[in-house]
Design brief:
With about 270 residues, the chain is α/β, with parallel strands linked by helices. About 40% of the residues lie in helices and about 20% in strands. The strands form four sheets. It has a five-stranded parallel β-sheet, with helices on both faces. The protein has a three-stranded antiparallel β-sheet with strand order 1-2-3, with no helix packed on it. Strands 4-5 form a two-stranded antiparallel sheet. α1 packs antiparallel against α2 (about 75-95), α2 packs across α3 and α8 (about 230-245) crosses α10. The radius of gyration is 20 Å and the shape is globular.
């Protein structure tokens, strides 16, 4: 077994890169990180619930709204909304992925986390595949790979052409329905959710082996490929990223590294 080191990224807050390389009989290589896995919660959803209990009033999500001003959700509001939406989303997706076509927004974050909580997995897709004519082939390919139980868009108007091109289209969930083709309105769900569920009373957590999200490659060398992240993959990767941010000793001394893991996920997916 050999240990290779590569160029330092310490100035960016990452640990010194180190990889253990083991040749295999088939002629390949097995790559391992020698860094011990830091403590972490079972899933990101456990971390969100814990954050809602410990720092309920802290701002979790914030975005500028088109007519001026700022829309914000604190961690208590985020948890209660996500847990409530997950209950509504679960029978719609029926264990199939939720395909998300529109870009970043608070609503995108809510349905994405709700799908992960419901055990449906979230499949965000580059908006360019839907909005640009040259993306049509990639959109159809991703759709065929994903076989979603539902599709979310912020507004059906800009995505109408793309949605209507997909065969056997499942339920369309939208915040705004300019094109009049949405089956379900997110605003209605948000109203019905109300105060949601108390984090102390929630028990229906996903398990670490369940798929959490499906990320698609850019398709720059062909058609996009789907990469499935289980809940365990996701939270352990984020735990290692957190070690890189503060240093391994700091991470191991934290009482609850799940809070910081959740912060990193929100920043990386903003």
């Amino acid at each position: 077994m050999e240990t290779d080191t590569f160029g330092s990224l310490a100035h960016l807050g990452f640990p010194e890169p180190e990889v253990e390389v083991t040749p295999t009989p088939e002629g390949g290589w097995l790559l391992r990180s020698p860094m011990p896995m830091p403590p972490h919660p079972p899933t990101l959803i456990h971390a969100l619930s814990a954050h809602a209990r410990r720092t309920p009033g802290r701002v979790a999500l914030s975005e500028q709204v088109p007519r001026g001003g700022v829309r914000q959700l604190n961690f208590d509001e985020l948890w209660r909304t996500v847990s409530g939406l997950s209950r509504l989303l679960k029978p719609v997706c029926n264990e199939k992925p939720l395909m998300i076509l529109s870009g970043n927004s608070i609503d995108h974050a809510l349905v994405r986390l709700a799908a992960m909580t419901a055990g449906c997995s979230a499949a965000p897709v580059s908006p360019a595949y839907s909005l640009l004519p040259e993306g049509a082939e990639k959109l159809r390919h991703v759709y065929d790979l994903c076989r979603p139980g539902a599709v979310f868009v912020q507004d059906t108007g800009p995505f109408a052409r793309a949605l209507e091109s997909l065969p056997g289209l499942p339920a369309v969930i939208a915040m705004e329905d300019e094109a009049g083709i949405a089956d379900l309105r997110l605003q209605d769900w948000l109203t019905s959710v109300g105060n949601g569920r108390d984090p102390d009373a929630f028990e229906d957590f996903p398990n670490p082996g369940q798929p959490a999200q499906i990320m698609f490659t850019s398709g720059s060398t062909g058609l996009p490929k789907g990469v499935v992240h289980t809940h365990g993959n996701l939270v352990s990767d984020l735990a290692v990223a957190f070690v890189g941010r503060l240093g391994q000793g700091s991470a191991l001394e934290l009482e609850d590294p799940g809070n910081e893991i959740l912060d990193i996920y929100i920043v990386l997916n903003d």
